[in-house]
Amino acid sequence: MGDDALWVASLAERARGLLPEPVADYIDQGARDGISTAEAAAAWRRLRLRPHVLRDTRVVDPSVTVLGRALDVPLGVAPTTLQRAVHPDGECAVASAVAEVGGLLVVSSNAGTPFADIGATGVRWWVQSYLPADRALALPLLARAVDAGAEAVVLTLDTPVVGTKYARPGVPVVWDVVDPALLRVNFDAGYAEAPGSEKALDLGPGDITWLGRTTGLPVVVKGVLRGDDAVRCVEAGAAAVWVSNHGGRQLDRAVATTGALPEVVAAVDGRAEVYVDGGVRTGLDVATALALGASTAFAGRPVLHALAVSGAGGVRRWWQEMALQTVEALRLCGAATVADTRDLVAPDGLASL
Ligand SMILES: Cc1cc2nc3c(=O)[nH]c(=O)nc-3n(C[C@H](O)[C@H](O)[C@H](O)COP(=O)(O)O)c2cc1C
């Protein structure tokens, strides 16, 4: 392995050595027994590819179009909370790295950095949102995101309540030790105490339509694992469906996203874009996501690990290595473009899941 490939492969371990234990545990943990978290990366590795030969791959172009704009490499940064507890520069470091490489960033609604500062880096970014019981309470934060240049709103659907996670004996829960100033700075003061600010338990397709109309932005729905639900989202106006089990942090024993992706792609049938995350760790994983019909893959924990290890430079190095690996994977598959990847996954590779 090259130096950068080895470095990327070692990020999780390096980050754990550097971060306070409660923060490291917060990043790496899954809900309950951690079954879905543990099997995510392995699920990509179980799939097998059928490469083409006799294809001209002098030029390999991994670019895709996502919500009407080109993305040079089909890899985005998924929204994650607590980036400022991982590194003092937090969201700004991630945003400036992603801006520099021309990537795509999704910013958590729980971010610890004002959206205006993130937008000022020039990064292409989308805002992630959880809708509260009283939907109107979400509006000030969404307005701040629109003002700061968010190009889409990502509505996370898999979190009616936050999935229970267990603390390791002797390690404090991060929320008991973290400075509250490091998160949720884009909400109005007093938001958490406002009646109706708890997460909505009654989200429906109408919320997708409402969110699009209210913000004027395309709506991406995150956390869909079934074809029938994907269809309901698309019919309500979702511009994209993001196949995710929240990195295994919500419903433990939720299916791996590799298993759900083909069903969602088939059900959506080209009417919306489809994205995927969960255990994407290498360029081969990205290529496999494309082969299964995703427009782009996203990664969560690797970005936090890279941020912990080397700040903005770490995030940039991670992204650049992932980009190189993706191009190599496409070339070895005889795929000069993303369109050439769609038939690469061996059917029995899927069936064995
Ligand atoms: C520490 C951490 C915090 C997260 N916070 C959010 C969040 O605020 N909003 C959200 O929609 N997803 C959140 N996620 C889920 C990610 O967006 C993404 O779905 C998941 O991390 C992908 O799996 P991966 O970490 O294996 O790449 C979080 C994930 C992690 C690891």
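^ flavin mononucleotide complex. The mean pLDDT is 97. The chain has one domain: 3-351.
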